[in-house]
Amino acid sequence: MQQAQFYPIGTPGIKWTSKEVQQWRESRRIQRSYQQEVVLKMEQIGDDFECIQYGELEYESGSYPLFGFKSKSWDEHKPCVLITGGVHGYETSGVQGALLFLKETAPAYLVHFNLLVAPCVSPWGYEIINRWNPDAIDPNRSFVKNSPAPESALVMKFVQDLAVDIFAHIDLHETTDSDEQEFRPALAARDGKEYVAGTIPDGFYTVGDTENPCAQMQTAIIESVQKVTHIAPADPDGTIIGSPVVQHGVINYPLQALGLCAGFSKAKYTTTTEVYPDSAKATPQQCNRAQVAAITGMLDYLKAL
């Protein structure tokens, strides 16, 4: 496969310094409104949930309050399910799918579960439409002790301060064409590495935990989502984004070792969703509905245990 051109920031083969990070940050532009597209929609969420501001990010472009939603009818005898969206702010359906679930579908599950939802972990990334935060740090590699990303640190503290055991955790993501057009080339440039072009899977898939794959739950999620949108086939070598396909539409990553969001909660059941919004066969609304279907597929599986 042909090599991409060099990323326009930095010197090939040399890691970025603070100078290149600043140059990258100054090249970013606000493209949409977190306040209009996310915060205002939170006002449509019903009285079954308590809205909690768990922090605020202060960046050059402005202040970004961070919000989570917690079941009002909290019952310590019910299992707690954590739903996170917008860890990569540019992955739109993760945010909008979480909000849609809260507005339309979540109340029906409160008889079975305590629900905890953080719809938009990275609001700067949402506005800029970017994977990183302003310091060119990937929040979804930063769910570690002494996290370098405040987005990750604040949502971890929010969950930990509640002092509840998380039974299941679903983290809502997308894989987009821009991953190859922008974000992976930028990553290679930042780290002083050679960029080798990859492929983007055409369809939905999930990422389980290598150490705790929850295979039957992944199957239930895939079966639920395929009623809404198509599932990504494996590449000819039997992989998706370079990882072996362990069942239709499912790969595994070592979630905790990589500092991924779905690993920090140490839940018994974990998964990361990956929706493909650039498909000619999927609309934005379908992508949002696919995230809801993934959540309900998981919850329906868990309540039947």
UniProtKB/TrEMBL annotation:
<feature type="domain" description="Peptidase M14">
    <location>
        <begin position="30"/>
        <end position="305"/>
    </location>
</feature>
<dbReference type="GO" id="GO:0008270">
    <property type="term" value="F:zinc ion binding"/>
</dbReference>
<dbReference type="GO" id="GO:0004181">
    <property type="term" value="F:metallocarboxypeptidase activity"/>
</dbReference>
<dbReference type="InterPro" id="IPR021259">
    <property type="entry name" value="DUF2817"/>
</dbReference>
<protein>
    <recommendedName>
        <fullName>Peptidase M14 domain-containing protein</fullName>
    </recommendedName>
</protein>
<dbReference type="InterPro" id="IPR000834">
    <property type="entry name" value="Peptidase_M14"/>
</dbReference>
<comment type="similarity">
    <text>Belongs to the peptidase M14 family.</text>
</comment>
<dbReference type="GO" id="GO:0006508">
    <property type="term" value="P:proteolysis"/>
</dbReference>
<dbReference type="Pfam" id="PF10994">
    <property type="entry name" value="DUF2817"/>
</dbReference>
